[in-house]
Amino acid sequence: MSVKPTNQHTTKESAPVSPSDEFRLNRAFQWEAILGILAVGVLYAFLPQQLLIGPGWLLLLIEALFLLPMTFTLVTERGLPYQTIRPLTLVLLGVLTLALASGLALLLITLPNDKHATILLRSAALLWCANVLAFGLWYWQIDGGGPAKRHAAGHTAADFMFPQQANGNASGWIPRFPDYLFLAFTGATALSPADTYPLTRPAKMLMLLEALLSMMIIVLLAGRAVNILGS
After folding, report:
1. pTM of the prediction?
2. Phi, psi dihedral angles at 160 (to 5 degrees)
3. Ramachandran angles phi, psi of 197, nearest 5°
4. Using an 8 Å Cβ cutoff, are 88 and 69 in contact?
5. What would the 3-class secondary structure string for the chain be?
6. CB 139 within 8 A of CB 176
7. What backbone torsions phi and psi does residue 193 show, to the nearest 5 degrees?
8. How confident is the model at residue 95 (pLDDT cuts 50, 70, 90)?
9. What is the pLDDT of residues 122-158, one digit of tens each?
10. What is the pLDDT of residues 151-189, one digit of tens each?
11. Where are the domains of the chain?
12. Distances (CA, A) of 104 to 49, 63, 122, 136, 216
């Protein structure tokens, strides 16, 4: 009776990577998103005081409080599990979006009495850039349930379909935050998808909201500044 040889390392080698471990393994990818979050806070801090709720550094302070546990996890490879970090990230993105919306609302309120074209143009540019960054972060976080779940699913198309994923992503291409940032940039400029398409209702609603905010900034605020310059 012959005995088939067994490989004792098969189970160990084929064991899936847990979401928590995957968060720590892709540290470089996570740092890209953290820098994007901080960039939104910096842009918000440079807005005129009449467009801010509280001091300009307040949003950066809130970001720091949320990012500290994430940064600790990335640096030490220990800390909070992925199941805790993801809700914290979503809450932080909600805070960034509210800050962006409040800045735009205050700009619209003060628009009729503001005759300084350069301030209007600067405010519009800062809000537009913050809009692109904020929604790029949203797309990066919601697509396929987040970076860890996208990895577990082989980075196949989920909420968005990039050109590289059109045929099932046989090459194993990995979308990173700059890819979602480009998606947000095209959505804010063309006000419609370019080469990457939303596949689910949450993705479509997010793109709709981004395009709406971008259109308000470009058409209303920039148009008002041009009228002031021409008068």
Report:
1. 0.84
2. -130, 150
3. -115, 140
4. yes
5. CCCCCCCCCHHHHHCCCCHHHHHHHCHHHHHHHHHHHHHHHHHHHCCCHHHCCCCCCHHHHHHHHHHHHHHHHHHHCCCCCHHHHHHHHHHHHHHHHHHHHHHHHHHHHHHHHCCCHHHHHHHHHHHHHHHHHHHHHHHHHHHHHCHHHHHHCCCCCCCEECHHHCCCCCCCCCCCHHHHHHHHHHHHHHCCCCCCEECCHHHHHHHHHHHHHHHHHHHHHHHHHHHHHHC
6. no
7. -60, 150
8. very high
9. 888 999 999 999 999 999 999 998 888 888 888 888 9
10. 888 888 899 999 999 888 888 898 999 999 999 999 999
11. 20-230
12. 13, 20, 13, 18, 9
Tokens encoding 83: 């199941």
222, 124 Cβ separation under 8 angstroms: yes
Task: Answer whether 128's CB lies under 8 Å from 107's CB.
Answer: no
| 103-109 long-range Cβ contacts below 8 angstroms, 24+ apart | 103/44, 103/47, 103/51, 103/52, 103/127, 103/130, 104/213, 104/216, 104/217, 106/50, 106/51, 106/52, 106/53, 107/51, 107/221, 108/216, 108/220, 108/221
AA letter at 149: K
Q: Which residue type, as a one-letter code, is found at position 154?
A: G
- Please give the Cα distance from 105 to 191 (Å, whole number): 20
